[in-house]
Amino acid sequence: MGNVLNALPKSQQARAKADMQAIWMAATRAEAYTAFDRFVSVYAAKYPKATETLKKDRDSLLAFYDFPAEHWQHLRTTNAIESTFATVRHRTTRTRNCVSRSTFLGLAFKLIEEAEKTWRRINGPEKIKLLLDGIAFKDGEPVQDDRPVQQKLAA
């Protein structure tokens, strides 16, 4: 979202942010595609760089629809990764001149271990077993009749 917003003037960013949120907050992949196409049609003429940035990653951005709906909240954000790295980056910049590679790795490990204590538990942990068993999901719901296709993809 940040890369797309950086390609837009400040006056358009609030509206564009709301329009992009409508894409990945849609209840189904079809609704997300509709919102995606609406965003592209509104902004493509004046801001082609912004729409190209979004269009090139369309499938990756909407891949979370292939997972249980309970997990979508976790998959839509990178906050856990970014906040953990920010913690490590903040501490290591303070001690940059007095650490070797091995002490740095130990420090980073301990910092990440501490940060892990504040992470949220995953919603719907029982759905992980279904994913590992190869059950396909469409729009957050398990699809039972798609098993042979999934097995071919796994092979």
UniProtKB/TrEMBL annotation:
Belongs to the transposase mutator family. This is Mutator family transposase. Transmembrane segments: none annotated. GO terms for biological process: DNA transposition. Keywords: DNA recombination, DNA-binding, Transposable element, Transposition. Required for the transposition of the insertion element. InterPro entries: Transposase_mutator. It comes from Caballeronia choica. GO terms for molecular function: DNA binding; transposase activity.
